[in-house]
Amino acid sequence: MRRFRFLPLAALLLYAFLVPLLWPEPTADFSRALLPPGGDWIAGTDHYGFDLWSRTATGLRTSLFIGLISACAATAIGMIVGLAAAARGGWIDRVLMRGTDAVNSIPHLILSVVIVALFRGSVPALVLAIALTHWPQVARIVRSTVLSVRESEYVAAAYGAGATGRSVLAGHLLPVAAGQAVIAVAMLVPHAVWHESALSFLGLGLQPDQPSLGTLLDQARADIMTGAWWALAVPGAVLLAASLSLLALVPRNVLLGDAHAPARKAAP
Questions:
Q1: Nearest to residue 241, comparing CAs of 59, 23, 30?
Q2: Does some domain include residue 157?
Q3: CA-based nearest residue to 212, from 25, 106, 94, 62
Q4: Integer Cα distance of 50 and 60 in angstroms
Q5: Residue 5 domain-assigned?
Q6: Which residue windows are transmembrane per the record (predicted)?
Q7: Which positions ≥6 away from 194 have C-beta within 8 Å?
Q8: What is the tens place of the pLDDT at every residue in 172-229?
Q9: The domain that contains 69 carries what CATH number?
Q10: What's the rounded Cα separation, in Å, for the pair 55 and 107?
Q11: Among 102, 137, 201, 249, which is most exposed with the fewest C-beta within 10 angstroms?
Q12: CA nearest 259: which of 199, 183, 196, 190?
């Protein structure tokens, strides 16, 4: 079954990249606004008259792009902080972890809203907001894992054999941190997609002319009151499918809370 866990995500990626090419979005036409699914419109139209099938695919592509870049940025920051704290120890470890705790004590949504509000309607602002609110978790996981490896017997043996701190860092600690980084990206992408959708749903994300899953859901709030259920159901279903397909890539032991398993497997 594990070999098939990539299929849902592959299908969504094909949808996100091929549908806009095969079914290009027509220009806005209010005369065909909120048409129900059927006929020429597989998923109906939104209140601007856009084809919702193609519009949602474009929105998914935008949300995945923002989610992936945000997750990579958050993971890079967290990996640097966690690795530096574990490798150096002492006062550097204490300062970095106190800073991590300070950032982590601020509710994600509040900090994200403050950052996005400064650069409203900007993709870089969304990426920055998500990255700066999600790196502390990565830093703590990387630090904990690297510490367990640094204190292991085989690292002590490497030091006893004359290995330098730099060689231990490159040969033992960095590979473990890199393994944690891959897992962190896989876990953060769906979270980042939901964060982008939430910010756009609140009207703090992209502009309405920049389709994302969040902006489509935001526009559908008024449409659902007129009975246009498809305006909310289609992007909502795609958002849920994207989240579940991305979570399917995360190792089961990590989802169950055993984040140190990859480090144990990496130990000789």
A1: 59
A2: yes
A3: 62
A4: 15
A5: no
A6: 64-87, 108-132, 228-250
A7: 239, 243
A8: 677 888 888 888 888 898 888 988 888 888 888 888 788 899 989 988 988 888 889 9
A9: 1.10.3720.10
A10: 32
A11: 102
A12: 183
